[in-house]
Amino acid sequence: MVGNNKSIVLPFSSDKHPVQTMTSVCLHCNAHRSSHRRTWRRYTKNVLLTSLLEILPVSISTFFLKMREKFAQISIEHLRENKNLIRGGDMSTIQFPSAQALFIEGRKRGIRMVGHIYRGVPLNYYHATFPNNTTIRFFGFPRPPETRYKGEQWMDDKFILKKKLRASGIPVPTGACFTNFRTARRFFRTLTKPVVVKPRRGSRGNHTTTCIYTESDLYEAYTIAKQLCHFVILEEQISGAVYRGTVIGGKLVGVLAGEPPRVTGDGSHSIMQLIDKKNKDKNSLTADVTITPLLHHFLSRNRYSLNSVPLPDVIVDLSQKMGFRNGGISKECTNHVHPELIKLLEQSARIVDDPIIGFDFIIPDATKDPRDQRWGIIEANGSPFIHMHDDPQLGTHNNVARYVWDLWK
């Protein structure tokens, strides 16, 4: 089963098509396998904590969140005299891409950002000093104090997010959360296929499995998701491109479309041959499609193999991962989004009640009225990848970082 620590040897491995058989690096998240236990503890703890805060009075949950963040800040500030801590106001200490976008935009406005690195590991913690010498300290993104500790604490919980959106009439996939496989399997039998299985926390599609039709595939996907979180989500899969809609200050300011790597059949060439051609014809920004066990399993769930010969004009997806870094396409398309979709995403932001949100949603065509399509929001991120709007593979450059600093006007 994929996800164990054994190398996987496939019969179509060759020098031309090397099969990645990493025993230490997980194919489902590109992280070292030894980090799974640490991630599992963090995600599971966060789900339990968020669920508890949801039932406590707002005053108590807000006080707890403030104290937790204050403690984390004090812990880092106490390291200032430690020789293992490096502080600086340049790119060498600000290594997270979205923070770099904030750094560049802030510098234009006379805002000086300082980053921190401890024992060679960049910390997502910053100081920002404005031209009037006011200094703020923040993790990830600089949210104004009056906007804090509302939806920020639960938006990254996929189950709670969709529960709240669904209650307000915002389309989300039909799904539920489980800790027991037998219960999940019973629910699976009631869903329209295909189905998606994912950890309740996390981003970038890590340990997420799509295109699940059978109970054997369900068991494998459930096991993969369980490696990162005790709580696992099953939901119906929506067809279409995956979009990231970034809402800042209540306004939709960026929409990025992502498509997976795919090939189009011609009736005479195999999928492997079509991948060869795709890799040769792609532009320099797009990563090669690499033959991995993950690709093999993805194709098999969709009733294909690398030796399959797709019929003319049949499109075959090669991965569930989106964007040019995975061999697909990323396109900035903010100016082409249908007004009704803009309205619904901004309504969703009001429900979450946070000034900085990245909504991931799936829709067949974002330029058309969503009321005429099957679509849904699949998750939200309190630390959206705003740099992706700034440097898209296709489409117009969109400096979303400026809207973040505008929150402080």
Would you mind describing this structure in some detail?
With 409 residues, this protein is α+β, with helices and mostly antiparallel strands. Helices cover 31% and strands 21% of the residues. The protein has eleven helices and 16 strands. It has helices at 36-55, 58-77, 97-108, 158-167, 181-188, 215-226, 271-281, 293-301, 339-352, 387-390, 401-406, and strands spanning 85-88, 112-118, 121-129, 135-139, 175-178, 195-199, 209-212, 232-236, 241-248, 251-259, 262-264, 315-317, 329-332, 356-363, 376-381, 394-395. The strands form four sheets. It has a six-stranded mixed β-sheet with strand order 15-14-9-10-13-16. A four-stranded antiparallel β-sheet has the order 1-2-3-4. A four-stranded antiparallel β-sheet has the order 5-8-6-7, covered by helices on one side. 35% of the residues are buried. Residues 1-23 have low confidence and may be disordered.
CA(first)-CA(last) distance: 53 Å
Helix percentage? 25-40%
Mean pLDDT: 90
- Report the radius of gyration as a whole number of Å: 22 Å
What composes the largest sheet? Answer: 6 strands, mixed
* SSE topology string: HHEHEEEHEHEEHEEEEHHEEHEEHEH
Structural class: alpha+beta
* Overall number of strands: 16
Beta fraction:
15-25%
Characterize the quaternary organization of these chains: single chain
Number of helices: 11
Strand order of the largest sheet: 15-14-9-10-13-16
Shape: globular
Low-confidence stretches: 1-23
